[in-house]
Amino acid sequence: MTIRVSVVGAAGRMGSNVVKAVEAAGDCELALALDAGDDLSQITPENTDVVVEFTVPSVTLGNVLALVRQGVNVVVGTTGWTDDKLDQVQAALDDAPRPDQSVFIAPNFAISAVLADYFATLAAPYFESAEVIELHHPDKVDAPSGTAIHTAQGIAAARKAAGLGPVPDNTQSDNGSRGGVVDGVHVHAVRLRGLNAHEEVLFGNAGEQLVIRADSFDRGSFMPGVLLAVRKLSTGNYPGLTVGLANFLDL
């Protein structure tokens, strides 16, 4: 069966790569390619099996809610999601036209980044200290990245489950140099021309350090993950809201 895929944000850096990946996939066909100002109501269950949404954080929630009301499945690559926004998506799915309707949101579609995130949660209970550094191109509009936030949250949850206390830090005055804090884990964002998408997770004990690093040098590295999510949602076996590509990797 050919999967009919529509792309929202098709003219953007990521969206244009999704269009090419869909057109090159033997089991997919491009239904509609829409961008800013285009009418989303063109997308319906009659012409689309799965929508891929890659826009910007300021509009993605409205897009996803509209697409859910229109009865289509949605794969979302836009970052900037909060618990409140996720709750709104879940509420929309509760009232969706179809009981098997699904929305999938990925902090990152790169297999390397998803595995690094997973390995970090495994390592977290064994180290006294943990910090996250994410590095991206300067055109990225949000900081820290959704991937880094997700990684920090996973580290914090694993530390809490293991009964660990706060990460040690005796800094008294830092002028912001200690970065942001996500659930007690410091997260640092670097924006540098020449970079694409990179993350380092640093763990430390007395006398030892573990570094987990994932590098995506080209946006093409995200496309296998996008197509994996499209294929999974097209089966109808993932009703409701799913967050994170790890759910599709049998980890």
TrEMBL record:
<dbReference type="GO" id="GO:0016726">
    <property type="term" value="F:oxidoreductase activity, acting on CH or CH2 groups, NAD or NADP as acceptor"/>
</dbReference>
<dbReference type="GO" id="GO:0008839">
    <property type="term" value="F:4-hydroxy-tetrahydrodipicolinate reductase"/>
</dbReference>
<dbReference type="GO" id="GO:0009089">
    <property type="term" value="P:lysine biosynthetic process via diaminopimelate"/>
</dbReference>
<keyword id="KW-0220">Diaminopimelate biosynthesis</keyword>
<dbReference type="GO" id="GO:0005829">
    <property type="term" value="C:cytosol"/>
</dbReference>
<feature type="active site" description="Proton donor">
    <location>
        <position position="140"/>
    </location>
</feature>
<dbReference type="GO" id="GO:0051287">
    <property type="term" value="F:NAD binding"/>
</dbReference>
<feature type="domain" description="Dihydrodipicolinate reductase C-terminal">
    <location>
        <begin position="118"/>
        <end position="247"/>
    </location>
</feature>
<comment type="similarity">
    <text>Belongs to the DapB family.</text>
</comment>
<feature type="binding site">
    <location>
        <position position="137"/>
    </location>
    <ligand>
        <name>(S)-2,3,4,5-tetrahydrodipicolinate</name>
    </ligand>
</feature>
<keyword id="KW-0028">Amino-acid biosynthesis</keyword>
<feature type="binding site">
    <location>
        <begin position="9"/>
        <end position="14"/>
    </location>
    <ligand>
        <name>NAD(+)</name>
    </ligand>
</feature>
<keyword id="KW-0520">NAD</keyword>
<comment type="function">
    <text>Catalyzes the conversion of 4-hydroxy-tetrahydrodipicolinate (HTPA) to tetrahydrodipicolinate.</text>
</comment>
<feature type="active site" description="Proton donor/acceptor">
    <location>
        <position position="136"/>
    </location>
</feature>
<dbReference type="GO" id="GO:0050661">
    <property type="term" value="F:NADP binding"/>
</dbReference>
<dbReference type="Pfam" id="PF05173">
    <property type="entry name" value="DapB_C"/>
</dbReference>
<keyword id="KW-0521">NADP</keyword>
<dbReference type="InterPro" id="IPR023940">
    <property type="entry name" value="DHDPR_bac"/>
</dbReference>
<keyword id="KW-0560">Oxidoreductase</keyword>
<feature type="binding site">
    <location>
        <position position="35"/>
    </location>
    <ligand>
        <name>NAD(+)</name>
    </ligand>
</feature>
<feature type="binding site">
    <location>
        <begin position="106"/>
        <end position="109"/>
    </location>
    <ligand>
        <name>NAD(+)</name>
    </ligand>
</feature>
<dbReference type="InterPro" id="IPR036291">
    <property type="entry name" value="NAD(P)-bd_dom_sf"/>
</dbReference>
<dbReference type="Pfam" id="PF01113">
    <property type="entry name" value="DapB_N"/>
</dbReference>
<feature type="binding site">
    <location>
        <begin position="77"/>
        <end position="79"/>
    </location>
    <ligand>
        <name>NAD(+)</name>
    </ligand>
</feature>
<keyword id="KW-0457">Lysine biosynthesis</keyword>
<protein>
    <recommendedName>
        <fullName>4-hydroxy-tetrahydrodipicolinate reductase</fullName>
        <ecNumber>1.17.1.8</ecNumber>
    </recommendedName>
</protein>
<comment type="subunit">
    <text>Homotetramer.</text>
</comment>
<dbReference type="InterPro" id="IPR022664">
    <property type="entry name" value="DapB_N_CS"/>
</dbReference>
<dbReference type="InterPro" id="IPR022663">
    <property type="entry name" value="DapB_C"/>
</dbReference>
<feature type="domain" description="Dihydrodipicolinate reductase N-terminal">
    <location>
        <begin position="3"/>
        <end position="109"/>
    </location>
</feature>
<keyword id="KW-0963">Cytoplasm</keyword>
<comment type="pathway">
    <text>Amino-acid biosynthesis; L-lysine biosynthesis via DAP pathway; (S)-tetrahydrodipicolinate from L-aspartate: step 4/4.</text>
</comment>
<dbReference type="GO" id="GO:0019877">
    <property type="term" value="P:diaminopimelate biosynthetic process"/>
</dbReference>
<feature type="binding site">
    <location>
        <begin position="146"/>
        <end position="147"/>
    </location>
    <ligand>
        <name>(S)-2,3,4,5-tetrahydrodipicolinate</name>
    </ligand>
</feature>
<dbReference type="InterPro" id="IPR000846">
    <property type="entry name" value="DapB_N"/>
</dbReference>
